[in-house]
Amino acid sequence: MKKDSFLAKIARQKTSYLFIALPVTLFFVFQLAPVFISFIWSFTTYDVVHFPKFVGLANYKTILFDDPLFWKAMGNTVIYTVGVVPVGICLSLVLAVAIDQKIKFKNLFKSIFFLPTVTAIVAVSVIWKWLYAGEKYGLFNYFLLKIGFQPIDWLASPTWILPSIMIMSVWAGLGYNMIIFLAGLQTIPGVMYEAAEIDGAGFWHKFVHITLPLLKPTLVFVTMMSFIFSFQVFEQVYVMTGGQGGIGGVLNSGLTIVAYLYDKGFQKFQMGYASALAYIIFIFIFLLTVVNKRLMKTNVEY
Amino acid sequence: MSEVDAGVTNNSLTVKFFVYLLLIAGALTMAIPYVWMLVTSIKPLSEIQSYPPSFIVRNPTLEPYRDLFKMIPMMRYLANSLFAAGSITLFNVFATSLAAYAFAKHKFWGRDKIFLLFLGSLMIPWQVNIIPGFVIVKQLGWLNTYKGLIIPSMACCAFGIFLNRQYIYSIPDDLIDAARIDGCSEIRIYWHVILPLIKPVLATLSIFTFLQQWNNFVWPLVIIHTSDMRTIPLALAVLTGQFGANFAMVMAGAVISTLPMLVVYLLFQKYIIKGITMTGLKG
Fold first, then answer.
1. Coil, strand, or helix at residue B157?
2. Which of A250, A106, A234, A247 is nearest to A179 (CA)?
3. What end-to-end distance do the CA atoms of chain A give, in Å?
4. How many angstroms separate the CA atoms of A157 and A62, rounded?
5. Which ranges of chain A does DSSP label H, i.e. alpha helix?
6. Which of B109, B194, B240, B265 is the best residue to mutate to test the A interface, defined by the most A CB atoms within 10 Å of its own CB?
7. CB of A208 closer than 8 Å to CB of A193
8. Listed range (A129-138, B58-67, B122-131) with the worst mean pLDDT
9. A189 by DSSP, 3-state: which?
């Protein structure tokens, strides 16, 4: 049989290429090319108006060694992540186990917990801004006063602005994690619990010795996703800290790393600097994923 | 469980009590912000400023909603969001399933490499794309246009292609070959054989895309500069900055922006929950 030339092959597969043409073109222009462009820009200074000027590693050097605001944002992001992820996972796991019991109104509970997942995080932030409102008008301060505490300046205080956003984010993320845990719980065969019950195991015993070990793959997955999402927190920061002297809040106490990138890129138009920030974020997320892969490998199969 | 074993029954009763206690406390915590939003949005100013704050509205009013639609072009924002989210969803459903058919059932040069690129792109955070994305859109002259709002968002189609390909892959080749022998063209096979078989996955994909796009904030924030082009989340963020003191009106805005998605959620709950557990998609 005669071997087709390369071009003839391509021509014969015309239909296939036509089928993928549109998404592939868009993907290359708006998704793939930007990955390389921002990598190149991260070694330049670029203000959108003038042609990018090559500066070598200067952006990375400045960010890492000479930019206190970057470290402030990084610190805030780490505090945010380390606070939100474990608390969110514990609470949603407890809720999932509770819903997994033989109870009434299962679907009603599920729907209520899931509500924030279908609400835009901007809308959630706007609602919570009102709950956190200062003095005595806000609902939270009213509750605090009622149980004998002083009202808190939630979003206007450098101490409380980050915790305020963290509390809201835990609330908003519970339902999503809960649904994934619930799916994991349903893969655990009921026979295992029945066997344990015959041996006289109590609720707590069953949870520690059956539920937790068998749920490990789900736990690892949820932990990784939570870390990645938390590290990229932006919308709530934009809505809740904006307005009080730019994004970040009082003394930048609410500034996170992606909010800092937004400020550099789209407020100050330092595109080269912002690109370098983007790559630092990318490397961080990549490392998180690698660590997760390691965790997956040590996973015990039952 | 046997009734003879009183110890276990007792134990499980206490467990049940705590389970209900926990779930009711949790449900209240989840519901209160929504209820507070709804209550605030129908309160007259005098009641918002009265102390103590109350969940009971003595003189409910629709004034905040009237203010909202009078002071900002809310209908326009709803239309913008509907148009953008709707067209991206349509594209995502048809373009990705068509491409996925080629990736799953055709043999062509570069197929696996291109598919791997799509898969790999799922790992890349949006922060890396958005800066050049913005400049590309600017160079094309698409800043502050529907084109700029919609077309780059259509490019985030890797997940749809991946999901569709997996489903189409499991369709037996015999079915497709039989259609070919009958003289069906490839596009007819896609339309009459493939599409009907992947309807469930398309339903899930479309609901998710719509949800994500309706709630999308960062891209519109970056490329939209004039009031009339804003989408709902963007309008809401501006609203709370501009009229932050008028809580009733801001909450009315929050209600209007949340309501359509709550309706979608209640109608398609099954698909949404299935989609999340199947894929780890984020709403």
1. coil
2. A106
3. 53
4. 29
5. 6-12, 14-27, 33-41, 58-66, 68-100, 106-118, 121-131, 139-146, 161-185, 190-198, 203-206, 212-214, 216-231, 235-241, 257-262, 271-297
6. B240
7. no
8. A129-138
9. coil
- Distance from the Cα of B175 to chain A's closest Cα (Å) equals 18
CATH topology of domain B65-279: MetI-like fold (1.10.3720)
Of A24, A202, A265, the CB nearest to B114: A24
Q: Using CA atoms, how far apart are residues A286 and B248, in angstroms rounded to an integer?
A: 43
Longest pairwise C-alpha distance within chain B: 78
The closest of B174, B166, B156 to B202, measured between CA atoms, is B166
- Which residue of A103, A139, A285 is in closest CB contact with B125? A285
Q: What would the two tokens of residue A206 be?
A: 């069953």
Residue A27: which region, alpha, beta or left (left: phi > 0; alpha: psi -120 to 50)? Answer: alpha
Top-confidence residue, A5 or A81: A81
Each residue's pLDDT tens digit, A83-125 = 999 999 999 999 999 999 888 899 899 999 999 999 999 999 9
Domain range annotation of chain A: 6-54, 66-297
Mutation pick from B127, B204, B230, B282 vs chain A, by most beta carbons of A within 10 Å, is B127
- A-B CB pairs within 8 A amount to 278
Name chain A contacts of B116, Cβ cutoff 8 Å: none
Distance of alpha carbon B61 from alpha carbon A299, whole angstroms: 58
Which neighbouring-strand residues pair with A45?
A53
Mean pLDDT value across chain B? 90
The span from the CA of B250 to the CA of A232, in Å, is 26
| A54: helix, strand or coil | strand
B95 closest CB neighbour out of A22, A33, A129:
A22
C-alpha B132/C-alpha A80 separation (Å) is: 28
Instruction: Check B125 against A116: CB less than 8 A apart.
Output: no
> Are residues A202 and B11, on separate chains, in Cβ contact within 8 Å?
yes
Q: Which residues of chain B lie closer than 8 angstroms to A3, CB-CB?
A: none
Average pLDDT across chain A, whole number? 90
Give A225-276 pLDDT, tens digit per residue. Answer: 899 999 999 999 999 987 545 788 888 999 999 999 999 999 999 999 999 9
Under CATH, to which class is A66-297 assigned? Answer: mainly alpha
ipTM of the complex: 0.90
Question: How many Å apart are CA A54 and CA A65, to the nearest integer?
Answer: 20
Task: Specify the pLDDT at position A301.
Answer: 47
Alpha helices in chain B (DSSP H): 6-41, 45-48, 63-71, 74-105, 111-121, 126-139, 146-154, 158-169, 173-181, 186-189, 195-197, 199-215, 218-223, 232-242, 247-279
The three-point CA angle B150-B155-B159 to 5° equals: 120
Contacts 24+ apart (CB under 8 A), A257-262: A257/A70, A257/A73, A257/A74, A257/A76, A257/A77, A257/A231, A257/A281, A258/A77, A258/A232, A258/A233, A258/A234, A258/B127, A259/A73, A259/A233, A259/A234, A260/A69, A260/A70, A260/A73, A261/B127, A262/A234, A262/A238, A262/B218
Q: Is A45 helix (H, G, I), strand (E, B) or coil?
A: strand
